[in-house]
Amino acid sequence: MPEQRSALASVYKPGRVGVYDGPAQVVLFERANRTLVQVSGWPGSFRELCRKLETLLACRMPEDGLKAISQGQRSIFRVGPERLWVAGPSDDDLLMRFDGAALGEEAVVTEIGHSRTIVRAAGAEARTLLNRGLPIDLDFTAFPVDAFAQSVIHHMPVLVHRVGDSDFDVYVARDYAVSFWEWLTGAARSLGCQISGPE
Amino acid sequence: MLRITCPFCGERDQVEFAYGGDAASVFPDLADADLDRWTDAVFMRDNPRGDHREFWQHQHGCRQWLYVVRDTVTHEIKSTLPAREPRRAAATHEGRKG
After folding, report:
1. pLDDT for B92 beyond 70
2. Which CATH superfamily is domain B3-97 in?
């Protein structure tokens, strides 16, 4: 497989953003070493497919489009009534597992890792930063750890996943990655923002 | 600003949705060559005061098409159903007409 080039390569500059020189309240970095696989099924057989996937991945499948299931380095999102995203580290053997499982016509498995750029926003003001463009209540009571939402920031479709008390992963389509990064770093200027090297 | 409750994703902001047209109009059978019926279906729309049945797509969410009943006076969203459940949608439609 050809080496993946980051969509942010032309704009990614580690260092401080903005003129605020106090402690960084937000840390941003790209999560480049991730893979993403989409598994789509059909209305009549999706429940059965989920049972097979639970055996295959040794974890539960998400019941709804509100909460992801995370296990180790993997996170599973139910992004549609019969559609799942499985995110994992880039050396995860997801595709081999799916290929070997003989899912047949019950599922369409597509590797879509190159189609998304994943950005981690971490720190005390990460929520404030995202809520400058995201129409979702990120308060801990409404959006706890592992909650996720597919929504829109500044007209760009995103999937936001809360991975920790003040850590969020934002999945954005590769086509929008540079525009999203410009918006994100611009919105973070007043917060004390540190861009660290890609993970 | 409307808040629409997607049956899959929960209550969301209108910016995530795209309006998909009037859900009340019924198109003639494709074999029907009657020009008046086609003109009526394609161009003529009611402008009701009160409940209006319409399609919306949760474009930036789960991508599902929804069957929505919206009050044109108050903008209250009275019900949302997946558009692929036509029987439930039709039952909601008939219930609201009565």
Report:
1. no
2. Folate-binding superfamily (3.30.2270.10)
